TrEMBL record:
It comes from Graphocephala atropunctata. GO terms for molecular function: DNA binding; zinc ion binding. InterPro entries: Zinc_finger/UBP_domain, Znf_C2H2_sf, Znf_C2H2_type. Residues 26-53, 54-81, 82-109, 110-137, 138-165, 166-193, 194-221 form the C2H2-type domain. This is Protein hunchback. The keyword GTP-binding does not apply. GO terms for biological process: positive regulation of transcription by RNA polymerase II; segmentation. Its main location: nucleus. It comes from the Eukaryota.
Amino acid sequence: MFCSNATIYGANVKTELSTYPFINMYHCSLCSYVCKESRNLKRHLLTHTGEKPFKCSFCNYACTENGKLQKHLLVHTGEKPYKCTLCMYACTESGKLKRHLMTHSGEKPFKCSLCNYACTENGKLQRHLLVHTGEKPFKCSLCNYACIESGKLKRHVFTHTGEKPFKCSFCNYACTENGKLKKHLLTHSGEKPYECSLCSYSCTASERLKRHLLTHSGEKPFLCFM
């Protein structure tokens, strides 16, 4: 049993908790959130009030925790304090470094109980599970389009607005995805990062390299059934 009389200062909570000597938890009166420390309850209540007291002095970013603000400031300084000891990778968050290290170890701790799928992040596993349920929670308000990722929905909405936020600084090219812009920039740099291990062929896209490799294997995966 929890008392629901909680305030942002935690004073009422402490008073009420003394009535229940066997309960040592702080309970939000606006939702089911429960925590062990009053400071955590204070931070949580900001999600209800919408208040974001920690503000960036360089841009409009604001948040509810000082730790998040400190991480954000790294965007402005360019500092990447978390470095991989096995390659040149560096990042701004310890969690990202942990996930990166799995690319070296091959570990995939998040496993699907319905198939052999495994991955390095719980979020990716949750998205994968939608493949089995058939659920598409992200729906377009302008047409019948629905998908399993918020990012895909954002890109889809650009087809309605005509917006192309990713712009090339060397020419008039613009597109709806950062990945497409990166590929386009290779046409300016002349770089061809995808190289064939069997000959001197190189290209700017992994799909092209896959097609090229078929010329070595002799495989013809596309069959005509007419």
